[in-house]
Design brief:
By secondary structure, this protein is of the alpha/beta class. 41% of the residues lie in helices and 16% in strands. It has helices spanning 18-30, 46-55, 84-98, 122-133, 147-154, 174-183, 202-210, 215-226, 239-247, 255-266; strands spanning 4-7, 33-37, 63-68, 70-72, 78-80, 103-109, 137-143, 159-163, 186-187. Strand 7, helix 5 (147-154) and strand 8 (159-163) form a beta-alpha-beta unit.
Length: 270
């Protein structure tokens, strides 16, 4: 079976139906999903608490990846939280709300809302490396970073994954994806279905019809075909949507179909 990696959450807010969220998590795990992307600042706190309620005690093989470096403002905005104490507190919040003694992977989240911004990340990453040395974190990753920031980070600690904005229409990271593949570093595209601007394209619709799939399934399948180091985390809040997303993992795209989709990406149609 192809191992699938999906984000199971509703970003930045409380779920409309907590019981449905629990059903999504349990069905995802039963279906073979072994990678859940989360953060304690989603909600805040509620997402991790629901994951714990649904799946704790966690079975072997389940990888929970969280992130720190931001917090939710009273006006629902995202605010940087990169001071030493904020990062320490965030790691302990994740541990407590997930019910863990050690976090599998912690991503340091920097940059803007959607795109990275250049600048040193040495100071906040060093804090996480210290917590890793204390046995609170197994592995470190990065979110919303540039290749230069990755290189800086790799002088401090091994980096196992990079989570950036990337999808069939948003391909600024094309070269970065390939470079990470050569290094054996996972690339985890956030907003794989467009995020704030959902993917829309008549060409995408036509390709989906030709392979008897939905446009969103094709967009996810394209990412899986794009590079071997890509892990998918499309958010979902319903079992129906989860099942649709999972079907994308089995969708085989011919070289001709991929070429058509590449041309859609090149035109930045959204």
């Amino acid at each position: 079976m192809v191992q699938c990696n999906w984000q199971v959450r509703r970003c930045g807010d409380h779920p409309r139906d907590p019981e449905e969220a629990i059903r999504v998590l349990r069905e995802a795990f039963d279906a073979g999903v072994n990678h859940i992307d989360t953060s304690d600042f989603y909600g805040p706190h509620v997402t991790n608490q629901i994951i714990k309620q649904a799946l704790h005690p966690y079975q072997d093989g389940l990888l929970i990846v969280t992130k720190v470096g931001a917090r939710r403002g009273a006006d629902k905005t995202w605010i940087h939280a990169l001071s030493r104490q904020e990062l320490i507190d965030a790691v302990h919040d994740n541990l407590r709300n997930l019910g863990l003694e050690k976090l599998d992977v912690v991503n340091l989240r920097v940059g803007g809302v959607l795109k990275p911004s250049e600048g040193s990340i040495e100071e906040p990453l060093t804090v996480l490396a210290e917590l890793q040395g204390q046995g609170l974190i197994r592995c470190l990753g990065l979110s919303n970073v540039t290749p230069r920031q990755l290189a800086e980070a790799q002088k401090i600690s091994k980096i196992v994954c990079v989570q950036n904005f990337f999808n069939i229409a948003q391909r600024d990271d094309d070269a970065f994806v390939d470079e990470l593949a050569t290094q054996g570093v996972a690339y985890v595209p956030f907003f794989p279905l467009g995020g704030f601007t959902p993917l829309q394209s008549s060409e995408l619709d036509a390709v989906a019809a030709s392979v008897s799939a939905t446009p969103m399934q094709v967009a996810l399948a394209w990412l899986l075909h794009r590079a071997p180091n890509i892990l998918l985390i499309p958010g979902t809040s319903s079992v129906k949507h989860l099942r649709e997303n999972l079907q994308a993992a089995a969708l085989q795209l011919s070289p001709e179909t991929i070429a058509k989709l590449d041309s859609i990406a090149a035109s930045r149609l959204t």
